[in-house]
C-alpha cells in the first residue's frame, strides 16, 4: 500500500522559509555593538491625533459638536500671495530648462568655456546634463 501524503524535504527549493537575508537587528552595520535599532524610539508628530478629537465617545457622538467647536477647527484658505515658490530656504536652486548655445550649435565652437542660455522647459524631458544644471542669478556670477 502506498502513502498518498507528501512530506517535503527540508532543503527543497519549494519549501518556504529562511531566504538567508539578515534583518537589520542581526547585522553589524554599526561600530557600536551595543546598538539596538529598537532602542532608537520614535518622534511624535507635531499635531493632534484624530483619536483625540471630539466625538470619539458614544456620548460625544450623540450630542455632536457645538458651533464654537466647529468654528475653532476651521482653517483659513491659503491666499495667492502666500503661494509656495519652487525655491525653499536652504534648498536647491530652480532647475534650468533646455540649454542652447549662443550660436545655437550651428558654427564651430571657438570659446574655451561652455556657454548656453536657458530657453525654457521643453515638455519636461531633460537629458541628464540639463537636469543637473541650476540657475545662478546675475548678481552671483563671479
TrEMBL record:
Transmembrane segments: none annotated. The lineage of its organism: Bacteria, Bacillati, Actinomycetota, Actinomycetes, Kitasatosporales. Residues 92-138 form the DUF5709 domain. This is DUF5709 domain-containing protein. Residues 104-117 have a biased composition (Basic and acidic residues). Residues 1-117 are annotated as: Disordered. Residues 1-17, 71-90 have a biased composition (Acidic residues). InterPro entries: DUF5709. It comes from Embleya hyalina. Pfam families: DUF5709 (PF18970).
Amino acid at each position: 500500500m502506498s502513502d498518498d501524503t507528501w512530506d517535503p524535504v527540508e532543503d527543497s527549493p519549494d519549501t518556504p522559509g529562511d531566504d538567508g537575508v539578515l534583518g537589520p537587528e542581526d547585522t553589524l552595520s554599526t561600530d557600536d555593538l551595543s546598538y539596538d535599532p529598537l532602542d532608537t524610539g520614535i518622534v511624535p508628530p507635531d499635531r493632534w491625533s484624530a483619536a483625540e478629537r471630539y466625538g470619539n465617545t458614544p456620548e460625544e457622538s450623540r450630542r455632536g459638536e457645538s458651533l464654537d467647536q466647529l468654528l475653532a477647527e476651521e482653517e483659513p484658505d491659503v491666499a495667492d500671495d502666500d503661494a509656495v515658490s519652487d525655491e525653499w530656504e536652504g534648498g536647491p536652486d530652480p532647475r534650468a530648462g533646455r540649454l542652447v548655445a549662443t550660436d545655437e550649435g550651428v558654427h564651430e565652437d571657438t570659446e574655451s568655456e561652455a556657454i548656453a542660455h536657458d530657453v525654457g522647459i521643453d515638455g519636461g524631458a531633460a537629458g541628464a546634463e540639463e537636469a543637473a544644471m541650476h540657475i545662478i542669478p546675475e548678481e552671483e556670477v563671479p
